[in-house]
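Hello,

I think I submitted the glutathione job twice by accident. Can you confirm which output corresponds to this input? Input:
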Amino acid sequence: MSAEKCLAKGSAAPGPVPKDYIRVYSMRFCPFAQRTRLVLKAKGIKYETINVHLKEKPDWYLKKNPFGLVPALETPAGEVIYESAITCEYLDEVYPEKKLLPSSPFAKAQQKMMLEHFSKVIPYFYKIPMDRKKGEDVSGLEAELKEKFAKLNEDLVNKKTKFFGGDSITMIDYMMWPWFERVEAYQVKQFLDGNPELKKWTELMLQDSAVKATMFSPDAHKAFFKTFLDGNPDFDYGL
Ligand SMILES: N[C@@H](CCC(=O)N[C@@H](CS)C(=O)NCC(=O)O)C(=O)O
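Support: Only one job matched these inputs. Its output is below.
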């Protein structure tokens, strides 16, 4: 069973996950859930998707994930795993095809360090458009984000690689990508301009088949994000 339209409070709980499948609880425009969807696609894992209404959460969902956030994974044995980075690491461990995390402990630690740093960048993507909508001066936040983008650019320059973990896509690229897919919606696309290596990375990411399979157009992101900023997110936008 897959449910494109989100399931809200009062909906019937989905049955057990079919054998040989894994289920992802998602919201179509959630960047954290896109991390998990990218890894599922990149690794060619058989999965089904259930989209959850995040403003009117079904009781059955809160029983599975008491924090009520997406993404979460559910296995045929009824095990539930949540927190996007943990779901991705779990998938990489359980499904051996196309490893996305490096096997060397140091390289793996480097990816985790990059992820930790990137987690501190994520709030800017929301704070800038939200504060701007409230009519606040966002120039300070914009300058800080510009600085963060410059650091990411510098990282690619120093490493002399196309992607953040080497010359092919690895886990860290998928962990960061969803926010770059949405730069227009977040009104921060212009900050890529002074950062050519980072911009080139976004162009290369757009050629990846998992990115292509999970992405929405800038216009769809803009339309959804407007409903989000207005306080009434349309989780089924475009369906
Ligand atoms: N740290 C979590 C964040 C997930 C998250 O914030 N998801 C949002 C949707 S984009 C959510 O479920 N929001 C529902 C809520 O805040 O109640 C992760 O990495 O999985």
